Amino acid sequence: APLLNVIPAARATTATGPTDDVPAKPTDEKAATATADDEEEEGKAEEKAAKSALFKLLGPVYLTVFIDVISIALMIPVLPFYVLDISSEANGVTAQGKAQTVSDVTNINAWFSLAQMLSQLLCWGQLSDRWGRRPTIILSIIGSGLGFVATGISTTVLTITLARVFAGKADLCL
């Protein structure tokens, strides 16, 4: 709750004069302006400190989800060309080869999604409960990174599929 209380409480006065917890108003105009400016600067400093604390708490979470979404979104347009390139080296580019590429990409994405679903259901929840969220998120990011590196250095459709399955197993965040 202290992070959400970023706006300083408004100072109120009664019709008969200031309340007990509100300091008396200065009599001259310059002092009143200086007091109002000080209060405004103090409020801005409190708000900035609260935003900084909130960013420190939620920043790693947002970064992890961003990396996760970007990593999946980048594979969707690149993977068909990558598989076509690898399969055309082995088979030559034919109509049947292109149809096989579509089938391969569909299978690769299906295996990735299946591995991701099963690992989240069977593995990551218990690890997070046992070790805590931070170590499991770090392990997930490292595993996803290794899966994407393995995908990048793969030379056959089978190794791409296995690398994507590994990346799916390591994928915790979504």
Q: Any overview of this molecule?
A:
- The chain is an all-alpha fold and 174 residues long.
- 78% of the residues lie in helices and 2% in strands.
- It is built from four helices and two strands; from the N terminus they run ββαααα.
- Strand 1 and strand 2 form a beta hairpin.
- Helix 1 packs across helix 2, helix 1 packs parallel to helix 3 and helix 2 packs parallel to helix 4.
- The protein is elongated and about 85 Å long.
- The relative contact order is 0.10.
- The N terminus is likely disordered.
Q: Which overall shape is indicated by the principal axes computed on the Cα atoms?
A: elongated
Order of secondary-structure elements: EEHHHH
How widely separated are the two ends? 27 Å
Task: Please tell me how large the radius of gyration is.
Answer: 28 Å
Query: What is the number of E strands?
Result: 2
- Separate helix tally: 4
List the helices and strands and how they pair.
Blueprint lengths: L12 E2 L2 E2 L10 H63 L3 H37 L1 H21 L3 H14 L4
Antiparallel strand pairs: 1-2
Compact summary:
The protein has 174 residues and is an all-alpha fold.
